[in-house]
Design a protein that fits this description.
alpha+beta; about 220 residues; four-stranded antiparallel β-sheet
Length: about 220
């Protein structure tokens, strides 16, 4: 079988036989490696504004190659197939995945390994490009903006009313998330959506007895 035939088989026809040649293994693993590197850079680009875990990124790329190797092996021997299924059934992974987006990349790596290992690299390539476009478009859509957190410290309980009046002047949406009273002082945490951030903080500081005001953004859950 020529290299062209092997490449065609790895892309579209699948490895239908019970024996996989060395050329087919090299082509398959080469294709998976390229897609794994592609996934590596896509994950790095998506998480450029967030906390980036390089070890997780390497693991996602490596899992695609490992999965493809397993699938290639399973096609050659039924006994190995049954043994592998039994062995994998007792494996337990206890590492918690904190970001739902990480799950997408994990499944992406596994899927690419399975598809390429089965000899349908064309599907893996098309799936990878489709996922990339879909993730980038959905990530760019301005569906909702996370509110900001306003933290205020004052030395007089009576300052709360004036603080709320100033907040309402700049923000239609505002919600007191925490109100901590101490001897002669009050600490407040208010969730706000505001455009004139600097003016809001400056006017808050003009309120009598206010000693500190901080406005912070966050990338957590969004309240509609």
């Amino acid at each position: 079988m020529s290299f062209k035939d092997v490449l065609k088989s790895a892309l579209t026809n699948g490895f239908a036989s019970t024996t996989v040649s060395t050329k087919e293994v090299v082509v398959c693993l080469g294709m998976v490696s390229l897609l794994a590197v592609y996934i590596f850079f896509v994950y790095r680009f998506i998480t450029r504004k967030e906390f980036y875990n390089k070890n997780f990124n390497i693991a996602v790329a490596a899992i695609a190659i490992v999965t493809a190797s397993v699938i290639l092996t399973l096609q050659t021997n039924v006994a190995i197939s049954l043994g592998t299924v039994g062995a994998l059934s007792i494996v337990r992974f206890r590492t918690a995945v904190k970001d739902p987006m990480d799950l997408i990349f994990l499944f992406w790596g596994v899927a690419v390994g399975i598809i390429c290992g089965a000899g349908y690299g064309e599907i893996a390539i098309f799936t990878s490009f489709t996922l990339t476009i879909g993730i980038l478009i959905l990530n760019a859509l301005p569906i909702a903006k996370a509110p900001m957190i306003l933290v205020i410290n004052a030395t007089d309980y009576a300052a709360e009313t004036k603080i709320i009046d100033v907040v309402k002047k700049y923000s239609k949406y505002n919600k007191v998330k925490s109100r901590n009273l101490r001897s002669g002082s009050i600490d407040m945490i208010i969730e706000v959506r505001v455009k004139e951030e600097s003016k809001l903080v400056q006017d808050i500081m003009k309120v009598n007895t206010v000693t500190a005001a901080s406005l912070m953004s966050h990338d957590g859950e969004v309240t509609f």
